[in-house]
Structures are given as C-alpha cells and as structure tokens.
Amino acid sequence: MKAFFDWADQRTGYKKLVHETLYENVPGGARWRYVWGSTLAFCFSIQVITGLALWVAYSAGSQTAWESVYYIQHEMWGGWFLRGLHHYTAQAMTVLLVFHLMQVVIDGAYKAPREINFWSGVVLLLLVLALSLTGYLLPWDQKGFWATKVATSIAAITPFIGPELQKLVVGGSDYGHHTLTRFFALHAGVIPGVIIAFIVAHIYLFRRHGLTPKEPRRRPDAAFWPDQVLRDAVACLAVLLVVVFFIIRYRGAELGAPADASEQFSAARPEWYFLFLFQLLKYFPGGTEIWGAIVIPALLMGVLIAMPFVGKWKLGHRFNLGFLWAMLAGVGLLTYLARTEDAASPEFILAVHSAERDAARVIVLAQSPDGIPTAGAVTLLRNDALTQGPKLFAKNCASCHRYDGHDGLGSQPKDKISASDLKGFASREWIAGLLDPARVDSLHYFGGAKQKTGKMVKFVKEDIAEFDAAQKAQLQKLIIGLSAEAGLKAQSAADTRDAVVIAEGRKLVSSTAMNCTDCHKFHAAGTEDPSAPDLTGYGSREWLLAFISDPSHARFYGERNDRMPAYGPDKILTAAEIGLVTDWLRGEWYEPKADPLPNLIPPPRRASSN
Amino acid sequence: MASHDCPHCPPPTPPDDRRSFLAKAAAIIIGGALAITAPVAGLFVFLDPLRRKSDSGGAVLVASLNALPENGEPRKFSVLATRVDAWNRSPNVPIGAVYLQRVGDKVRALNVVCPHAGCFVDYRSAKNHFFCPCHNSSFALDGQVQDPKSPSPRGLDDLVVEIRNGTEVWVKFQNFRAGTHDKIPV
Questions:
Q1: Which member of A358, A373, B15, B89 lies 3.0 to 4.6 Å from B20 by CB, making a disulfide possible if both were Cys?
Q2: Is A491 among the domain residues?
Q3: Confidence (pLDDT) at B12
Q4: Does residue A22 form part of some domain?
Q5: Do both A302 and A407 map to the same domain?
Q6: Taking CB atoms and an 8 Å limit, are B45 and A72 in contact across chains?
C-alpha cells in the first residue's frame, strides 16, 4: 500500500498538498470564530451535489418545469428530502455569508494586504444572492413566477439599457420557455462556474496571507488539523442539523400552484432575505423606484467595497464596524416591517390561504387517475370546478347571491345580499327551505329579489302555511322527488335508497293537488304557457347550465326575470366558465377515493417563508 | 512534522496524544457523516427508476379482423394506449406498432421492433419477409430469423392475441429487451 502511495506521490506531489492543507498554521490556536468560511464551503458543496441530482430529474420548460419538480417532490424516492436539502441549505448559506462578513469586518480581516480577498468575498456574496434569485423561478410555481416578474421588471428601470436588459434576462418580451432555459443556464451553469473560480481565488489568497488572528491570542499557534478541523466539522454539522430540522418540519421545500400568467397572485413575495429590498421599494413613489432598487443598494455596496481604504484612516475601522451594524439593523428593520405589514393585511392573509389551497388542490388533481396532461398542470386548476367555481362566483354572482353567507371565497361583498344563497341549491334541504313559509321570503331565498312579491312566495306563505299533517307529509315526498331531478352527487346514496319515495314525489309535483303545475312545467305535466321556471330536470347540470346562460329564456323566468344577466348570450361568461360554476354549485368535482399519498410524501403544508 | 516548504506551518509541538487522538477521530467521524448526506440524498433520486415497474398493461384493441388480408399478408397497425411518461399521462396515443397477419382462423401479432438493436423492421412484399434496415436482418413471416448470418439473437417477438366479439383483434402489447437470446419483457 505504501508503495502505491509513494508511486502516486512521486507523480502528483499530493502528500505535500495534503500536508499544507492540514498543517496550515492557526495563529493563537483553534477558535470557533474561524469556522464560517468552512461552513460556507460545506454548504456550497451540498448545493453542487444536490443541484446535480435535481438536474437529473428537472425539465426546464413552461409545461414541464413545475411538473418535473412535482414529480421530484411527490413521486420520486426521497425527492422531497433532496429538494428540501437544496432549498434550506441555500437559505443557510445566505445567513452564513452574513456571519462570515461580520467576522471578517469585526476582526479587520479586510485590511491590507487582504483587500483583494475581501473584494472576492463580496463578489461571492453577490453571486450567491444571484443563485437564490435565479433558483427561485425554476419550480415555475405561482410564487416564484410572480416574485421573479417583479425582479425582472426592476431590471427594466436600469438607465439606458433597462428594456434590453430585461428582454435578455427574460429571453423575449414575455415569460416562457426561454425564461426558464436562461435562468436554468445561469443557475446551474454560469453562476456556479464563476463561483468556483472565485472560491479557488478566495482560498488561494486566504492561504497566501494566512488567517487574521483575533487578538489577544489565547494559546500558542497550532496546526489546522485536528483541532480547527474538528471545530469546523462541528459547525458544519450544526448547520446540517438546522437544515434537516427545517426539511422535516416543513416536509421539504414549498411547491406552490403552477405558474399562471392569467391568474392573479397577491401572495407573491421574494425569498425572505430579499424582503428588505421589497420593503424599501414601497417608500419610493412612482418614477423614483430607481433610488430604492438600484441607487441605494449600489451606494451601500460601494461603501462595503471601500472598506479596505476607509480602514486605513484612524477611525476607519470603527466607521466600518458602525456601517456594518447600521446596514444589518436597517435590513433587519425593513424585513421586520415587511413581515408585520403582511401579517396585518387581511388581503395578504387571504391571498396566502388561497395560494395554499390551490397548491394543495393541484397535487390532488395531478395524482388523479387522469394525471397531468401534456398541456401542463396549469390546465388542471383552470379546468377544476372546485378551484374556479368560487372565483367565478365571487366575481360574477356574489354582488346579489351568496354561497353559505359569503362570496364563495370567504369574503363579504360590499353589496347586501339580494338574491338566494346558493349553497346546496336544489338539494332536499334547500328546497325544503324554499317551501317553508317562515323562510321563503327571507334573504336566504326570495327576500331580496323581485320574486318576494310574486306568486310563489304568496303560495308558500298562504297555502303551504295552511297545510294539514297529511299534506305536510306529501310535501316532504314532493321535496324528495323534486330534488332527485338534480341528480346531485352528494345525494346519490339517498336518492338510490329513496327510489320509491322519489317516484311518489314526482307524481305529486305533477298532480293538481299540489298546484305546482299551475305555473310550472314538469315533464309532461303543466301549463302550455308557464309563468315560472320549468321544473323538469330542476337543478340538473343541463338545467343549471341553461338557466345561468339565460334566465330570461321562456323555459325559466321569461320576462319576469329579475336582474340576473344572460351570461351566455351576453358573452359575460364562456360556456366553459358557466360549466365550472355549474359544477361547483352542484358539488361536482374530482375527489380522490382514498388518501393517495403514500407515507413518504409530505401532506399539504404551510408556506415556510410566509 | 512541519516541512520546510510550508512557511505557515507551526513548529512541531508534542500534543496531548490522547486528546489529539479523540479530536482526530471525532473530526473524521463527523466529516464522514457530513460528506455522505448530500450524495446519499441525491443517489436515492437518481436510483428512482430502478423501483419503477414497466407498465405491461392489459390487452389493447388494435384492429378489426376485416382489415387483415385473407391471404395472410402482414399489415402494420399502431397500438394506441395510455402512455405514461413520468408525470404526463396521455390517453389514446401510439405506444408502438405490430404486424398482424391471419394464420388459418387465428391471428399472429409480431412486434415491429427488431430484437437485435431496436430498429423497426419493414415488411417487403416482393420477398414476402420482414427486413431490418439497420443491420440487414431478415425474418420469415412467422418471425423466425431467415438469414443465418443475421446479427439478430432471436426472431421477431410475437405477442399474445385475443379475438373478441368475433372481429376485434386485441393484442397484449409488450416490448422486450433487445440483444438477448431470450425474450425478456422490459
């Protein structure tokens, strides 16, 4: 064995290199304050290894990026852990960079002859931030997409070259495949390559000038190995344990809903360590953003770069220290303000909840038997009644109607309720309420609408109110029979069970005894010239589609229609949109049969950085 | 210990041997744990394909019996099925092709993939055989290797065929490993 090592040493001289590495002098002996550089090197190596492994499964394209990350996160062996390791180590790196910078400034390690090494460190700091910025977009989820859009819009205000710069970064005038391929090339190729070159230079210069000892020296000089190596290793272990804690705590890195340029996303925020810049921009009114986005950060960087020169002045070191603390305090304060403002904003909290709901829902849809279509996972949410129904309802219906007392999304519209609450529309309970003399003219039903003074309300309040026990029992059957017309998913078991009652109930709707067909049509029964909506197929998909499309149609309210627009003929909603609202109101959307998530896969999670 | 080539190296000092040994052992153990974490996490994801079984699937309706010539001449048909490509699921897309031919009142199905290196074979009606344009293998109508110098290790792969409802030709479509003597499903 020794012969082999000697043979290799003669040809490579590795022994001397190893010796120099391990027996580097540590003036004053090993100390904990010297560990930061090593923890950063450790983090960077983790990022390279996990990054390459993620690369194996990542696909940069606007129909494949989110999908491949979903696949890593939810389908591949331990993919959530790998992503988590990459994600949280990136955050750890940012924190460690600040610690390293603080240690260098406090110990005066930026002073001559170490200026160039200090500057190379500042460049490395900026490069690592550039990695964060480019990596944030790659999962192509709503959060990364919208946050990065803000960043690239800021690039556009750069003097002289702004618009061209933005186009080059984005890879065109709009976000798409080339945005991802460019960001990916930067994130996984160009920037890491430059970082490696700078790390080599950084370590070479560090070795050339040696460690800057913290005075007074407590102990005699010692070799790097083993005491300092042990301290570095323990520090790296601590970093790793913190990272693993976050991975387990949040079950890997967050993955939002797929990017959708047509879907508002008010929860967009940059990664937490860029929040101070985000907050700073709020203080610059339109036209002056350049101060917050470019000028002030550039000036601060300028002072940082000038530290070695300032440090030569008698009070220079104190100035540098003061500047560093002031900058960190400013960043801390801005970050704190950004967080507290968000935490106090109901809109932001609602947007975050909505984002979390979409993120969880799209995973359920992606794991459905239909899987993800080649058009991309974004279509899953666009075509999902549970996702789109409430949004369409809030926008188009909730100025008059309600859904369980709210606008479908949980907010209260500014206008008072003036048409029925449609939660459970056409279900037995809903119809029972409509035929209840005490409730028919409440705001829940016709109380706010023109029908309040119509024949139906009058019939319920006068005739039904007088029903005897036998008639009330018949009314119950009628309700069950009429509700069965809807064929609601939620009632399918009850409808199957009550087939006999339903048949009786249907007969009762048609019978003259109950008076329905005086005004309504019901299958073959009823007047030729109905003055009220046709009850044939009441609440069924076809019925509701046609009703929402045109309630003034002779089949429904005709000219007695109150204020409801003809969403179809007037082109307020597309046929697909009417379908989504209809399906949502009827409770028709995909639900997994059983829990499709195997144990290894994280459940829907709360955003780690919100 | 210090070499003269190493200007920063400290003078050799006799360390506390026991303490030094413990420090070295701890540094090596912790360092080892640090070094393997990321590669192991990456390796799991990298090895993920090994735990995925190929979707051998059931039989697929390929053609109507009426579409096959009575004289037993082979006809090529696409096999349409649900293609699962990692996260994408595409229903009713071509996942391969077969040659179907009548053999008496039965139907023979041959996978169009040459078992040598995976090229698609052609049917040449003039010579009434299958020919692989990549390495010039030729196969008889029953799929057997025709040319003794053929590089193909086995004949064309026949597939299980079922006739349902009198006229529907259903094929249990499978691909097999190329380059082996035995027919091993992939």
A1: B15
A2: yes
A3: 53
A4: no
A5: no
A6: yes
Cβ of B30 and A223 within 8 Å?
no
CB contact under 8 A, B44 and A240: no
Domain that holds residue A504: 385-585
- From the CB of residue A520, how many other CB atoms can be counted at a distance below 10 Å? 22
Q: Does A597 have pLDDT greater than 50?
A: no
Share of chain A above pLDDT 90, in %: 83
Q: Which of residues 80 through 109 in chain B touch A, CB cutoff 8 A?
A: 84, 86-91
Domain count, chain A: 2
Q: Return the residue of B nearest to A89 by Cα.
A: B38
- The token pair that represents A232 in the structure block: 């570095």
Cβ count within 10 A of residue A54: 23
Query: Are residue A492 and residue A398 in the same domain, yes or no?
Result: yes
B164 touches chain A (CB under 8 A): no
User: How does pLDDT run across A521-568, given as a tens digit for each residue?
Assistant: 999 888 777 889 999 999 999 999 999 999 999 999 999 999 999 999
Residue B56 contacts A where some CB pair is shorter than 8 Å: no
Q: What is the pLDDT of residue B56?
A: 62
Alpha-carbon gap: B8 to the closest alpha carbon of chain A (Å): 5
Residue A219, in any domain of the structure: yes
Question: How far is the C-alpha of A238 from the C-alpha of A234, rounded, in Å?
Answer: 6
Question: Rounded distance, CA B113 to CA B121, Å?
Answer: 6
CA of B57, closest CA in chain A: separation in Å? 15
A39-83: pLDDT as tens digits: 999 999 999 999 999 999 999 999 999 999 999 999 999 999 999
> What distance in Å separates residue B92's CA from the closest CA in chain A?
12
Decide: A86 and B45 in contact? Cβ < 8 Å.
no
Same domain, A389 and A344: no
| Region B60-172: CATH code | 2.102.10.10
Residue-wise DSSP of A109-140: TTSTT-HHHHHHHHHHHHHHHHHHHHHHHTT-
A545 and A441 in a single domain? The answer is yes
